[in-house]
Design a protein that fits this description.
Elements (H helix, E strand, L loop, with lengths): L1 E4 L5 E4 L6 H19 L8 H90 L18 E4 L2 E4 L23 H9 L21
Antiparallel strand pairs: 1-2, 3-4
Helix pairs in contact: 1-2
Length: 218
């Protein structure tokens, strides 16, 4: 056995399963029950009764081992949850700072690029008007002075501390599920399973069949 001590005062005992006498006793029972299962021969109805008794014992041992596993893990899982919850709180302001700063940088980049596109569109329109005017009157009166526009946004911002740059992250939103190709659709297995267990036996495209198992009452 070893102990891990946290600064918060919580002490978690680490016990290897193979050093737990209760678990090892259950493990030995499991081996015996497996040996009986491998040697068992069922040839008549009378053979079902001892098989039934063994099956009940098997399920009890399974339950006991699983309960022991959960009992051992619960303090660690509780500590993990508490730690995650605490660090979620600790991380919240820095996550907000990250989102706010990155958001403002992205908003600036987007607006600057919009202004550049708008200025370029105006220049294109002015050139088009000038060509039409020349064709019509043989002279140009349109002011072709380049439209003032902001400087290009750099692909990367570099400083002594490091660099940053805008990265494309393509995503999607469903606008019409019926138009999505079938290979990109996923069957709702949980919903279908619930319907089948409730008695629905005919769903187009599905082969619904029974897989019997042995249920016990102890």
């Amino acid at each position: 056995m070893t102990e891990n001590s946290m600064e918060s005062g919580t002490v978690l005992a680490v016990v290897k399963p193979e050093a737990d006498t209760q678990v090892m006793a259950l493990y030995q029972q499991a081996i015996s029950l497996r040996n009986f299962a491998e040697a068992r021969i069922i040839t008549c109805n009378d053979d079902l009764k001892p098989a039934n008794d063994d099956l009940i014992s098997i399920r009890k041992v399974k339950k006991a081992i699983e309960e022991r596993r959960k009992e051992y893990l619960k303090p660690f899982q509780d500590h993990i949850k508490e730690t995650n919850d605490a660090y979620k709180t600790f991380m919240e302001p820095i996550e907000q700072a990250d989102q706010i700063t990155a958001g403002k940088m992205l908003a600036f980049n987007t607006e600057q690029r919009r202004k550049i596109r708008e200025a370029e569109a105006i220049e294109t329109e002015k050139l088009d008007i000038a060509r039409r005017e020349m064709k019509l009157n043989g002279e140009i009166t349109v002011d072709l002075t380049p439209v003032e526009k902001p400087e290009d946004v750099p692909d990367r911002v570099i400083s002594d501390m490091g660099s940053s740059g805008q990265r494309n992250n393509w995503t999607f939103a469903v606008v019409d599920f019926a138009l999505v190709p079938d290979e990109y659709k996923m069957l709702d297995s949980a919903k279908v399973g619930k319907l089948v267990r409730a008695g629905m036996r005919n769903i187009p495209g599905l082969d619904i069949f029974n897989k019997p198992s042995i249920a016990i009452r102890g």
